[in-house]
Structures are given as C-alpha cells and as structure tokens.
Amino acid sequence: MACNELSDESLVRARELMQQHRYDDAIEWLTTCRRQQPDEGIELLLALCRYQAYLAQPPCSAIADPWLTAPPDPFGDVVGVPEIPASKLDANTLAAGIRHHGALLVRGLLSADIALQLADGVRQALDACAAWHARGEGAFDNSWYARLPLQEGCELAQARPWIEEGAGGVWLADSPRMLYELTELFGSSGITDMIADYFGEQPMLSVGKSTLRCVPGSIRHADWHQDGAFMGADIRSVNVWLGLSHCGEDASGLEFLPRRLSRVLPTGSHGAYFDWSVGPGMVTEAAAGMATTSPVFAPGDALLFDHFFLHRTGVPAAIAKDRYAIESWFFAPSAYPAGQVPLKL
Fold it and tell me: Quick check: is 272 in a domain?
C-alpha cells in the first residue's frame, strides 16, 4: 500500500475516534502513525485533536497541590537560583528550586545538537508565519504554521497578532510540526512525567503562553514582569524556558530576581512603562538588597519557574546576535488559568 494511502486510512480512523469523543485514543493513534511515517496531515490533525479534547472536557478543580507544605530544600546552602545537571532533575528538585528559590537552572536538559535542530525548526515556523501573512489569510496552511482554529469570540485570539508581529514569536500550537516534535521530546526525555509528578496530575500545555521565539540582536530594552499578572495567582504552573542558542553574552538571555516571591507584585507603577509590567522601583523593593542576575545559557540549557517569577529579557552590553528559545508553559488541570486554552498531552 502506498504511503499516501496509509496516511489517508490513518486520518479516517482518527476522525472516527474524534467523532466518538475518544480523544485520548485519537491522540495515541495519530502519534503512533506519525512515529511510523512523517506526514503533514497527521501533524495538523494531531494539533487539532489536542485542542478539541479540551473543548470536549475542560479542566476542572479537583486535586489539591501536593506541595502545600514546602518540600525539603537540598539547596539550602545556595544563595539565589540553584543550578543542576539534567541527571539530577526530578519532581523533588523542581519543587525545591521553585518553592524555595524561585526557579531551577538545568544544564544540558537537551543535547546541544537537539537544541540547534529545534532552533532551525523555530526559524522555519517563523518564516512560514511570515509567508502566510504575505500571501493573505486564505493561504494554504502547512504544518510549520497553521493557526489553531480557536472558538469564535475567544479573547486569547486577540493576543496572537501581538505575539507574531510585536514579540518575534509564534505560538507553539500554531506550528503543528513543532508541537509534535516538542511533545515527543518532552515525553521521551521524561520531562512531562516529571512535571506530572510535581503537579500530582497529568499536565496540560498552554496555547497562549507556549511560544517559539527569535529575539533579535537589535533589542535594547525589556520590561520586568511576572506571568501571574496575566494569568492570576491561584494557579499551578511550570514554564520550561529552553535556550536553543548561546544566550546571555552576545545574544539576549534572561535577567531575573533570584529569589522566591509568593505574590503577584503591583504593575503599572514605580516607573513601569506598561500597565502589565513591574516598574524598576518595585523591582528594587522586591529585591530587598539582592542583585538581579543574568546567567549565560548554552544551547539545551533550561530555566524552570512558575508564574510568580520576576524576570525580563536580558540585554547584555555586547549583544549582536539573535537568540532562539522556546517557552513551554505547563499547567495543572485542576488549577488551570482562565482564558489560556489548554492542549491535551
């Protein structure tokens, strides 16, 4: 049987499962088929299936946070954000890093080769997005860029143009090829299972916060923020911020306050440029004498943090190159932020 006939049969079977609202089965089936045969149609339908699974059964609050009591801190002698190799990453070190220090820096979460391959994928997704805009909205979608068909009136859709035109990014959900690659990578590396252990439940991936980015070497300023200002404080989250190129020396990186904050700070005051940003005066107050820091990231290094973490794009003095990175925001279904639109993993 020809490859296209196999693909057609796979898609027919998947659509039958989706019509029966058997989305978990459809995701498993499509993923298995895609592993056996690269296929754009399978990638497109798999992205849609992950979204429709949420529409059929939205997250609901039912499970308590397993870390309401602060975990033991194996980094008690560390001032600032602890740093570990990927081999030491598990739910306990993640909980300790975030709950005691604000974040956890993981060296070599991915190999440099894989990180650079992903950077190339980000570039292709951004180029496909630019081509889509140049051709007009009726242009044919491909799996590098195909807009997730959000429900009519979805407020989140209003943020999409800003991400694409003003922030040098594309939603991960709008690149079915990269969504497939990342979900496979997070699954095979144990990252998804580790975050599930941390949440105490299987995580969901955010449409509105998971982003493929290329920050240009021309950037000269960035604003401080906490993501909880956009999503609320009463949620449970983990952002896997993954550097795909050298960051922090001749390309932008991350600058952050290396301490745990347990609340969302006031925004739009203390010299803030935007109503959503944290003003420099408020950053000084929150720092309480602690200096901000901007580590150097190698391709494949990652910073893991939640919605209370105070940070901004770091702009080193010698900046000259573009920076590639991926933000992957995971949320606990029982405490999912309203309006962010989840994808089923």
Answer: yes
Identify the CATH number of the domain in which residue 88 sits.
2.60.120.620
Strands 253-256 and 211-215: unpaired
Helix (H) or strand (E) holding 121: helix 112-135
| Domain-located, residue 74 | yes
| Domain presence at residue 42 | no
Tell me the CA end-to-end span of the chain in Å, nearest whole number: 31
In a domain, 1, yes or no: no
Residue the block writes with tokens 């991350």: 254
Could you read off the pLDDT of 243-265 as tens digits, one per residue?
999 999 999 999 999 999 999 99
Q: Return the C-alpha torsion angle 254, 259, 262, 267, nearest 10.
A: -50
Residue 13 CA neighbour count, 13 Å, CB half: 16
pLDDT per residue over 163-172, tens digit each?
998 778 999 9
* Residue 255 contacts residue 293 (beta carbons within 8 Å): yes
Cβ pair 40, 142 in contact under 8 A: yes
101-111 pLDDT, tens digit per residue, is 999 999 999 99
Total domains present in the chain: 1
DSSP at 164:
I
SS3 228: helix
Q: Burial level of 182, CB count in 10 A (0-12/13-18/19+)?
A: buried
Find the domain containing 187 and state its range: 69-343
Task: Copy the structure tokens of residue 249.
Answer: 């020396």
d(CA 125, CA 175): 6
